[in-house]
Amino acid sequence: MSSGRTEDITVQVTYDGQQHELRTYSNEYRSLMMLIYDRIYIEGFGECLGMGKCGTCVIEITEKKQNPTAYERNGDANLLRAGRQNKNICLSCQLMIDEQLDGLTVRILI
Ligand code: FES
């Protein structure tokens, strides 16, 4: 019998030349930024704690099985201001932890 909650979402994160496999489950964290923030120490990452204002949680999506679910906030405006217009580059605090995230491979850009 299943306990109900399984770590069924896997995200590969590359930072500073090292690859980290992060396993989680739907809604364990508020966003991909919080998952990364909690599991990998990255100085200066996620400074506004997910308000979509600091731009320090920028990632590049290098592989995906499906499109991740994004919050509708002002993240795109901040990215445009920062001059990043590549559609694979986004704020990790704008991505929800749900099954759409499974199989995602990202690179931290700060
Ligand atoms: S944590 Fe500040 S913009 Fe994402």
Automatic annotation (TrEMBL):
<dbReference type="InterPro" id="IPR036010">
    <property type="entry name" value="2Fe-2S_ferredoxin-like_sf"/>
</dbReference>
<dbReference type="InterPro" id="IPR012675">
    <property type="entry name" value="Beta-grasp_dom_sf"/>
</dbReference>
<protein>
    <submittedName>
        <fullName>2Fe-2S iron-sulfur cluster-binding protein</fullName>
    </submittedName>
</protein>
